[in-house]
Amino acid sequence: MEKAKSRKMDLSELKGGVFTITNIGVIGSTYFTPIPNGPESCILGTGRIEDKPRILDGKVAVRKIMPISFTYDHRVIDGAEAARFMNDVRELLENPGKIR
Q1: Which of 10, 57, 78, 88 does the annotation list as catalytic?
Q2: pTM: predicted TM-score of the whole model, two decimal places
Q3: The domain containing residue 67 runs over which residues?
Q4: How many distinct structural domains can be found in the chain?
């Protein structure tokens, strides 16, 4: 964990996973389609957080919005399960107090 926090991990220590999270928001980009690298079965990508207008309780309000992309191998993950996963991710990001 300390090597990851201090950014001292070797590339060899980062290979062989089945799920990856990538963030292009840090360089100012918003929407993209991440592609899993084998043997990964899925990849979640986050874009830049921006202030956007949204309707809340019938009124316009400015909210922080972060685009999220989720690409998965349909041979490994059923689309309905992927959608449920994304609903859970959204719920936890909108309500971080629910994270245990």
Answers
A1: 78
A2: 0.77
A3: 17-98
A4: 1
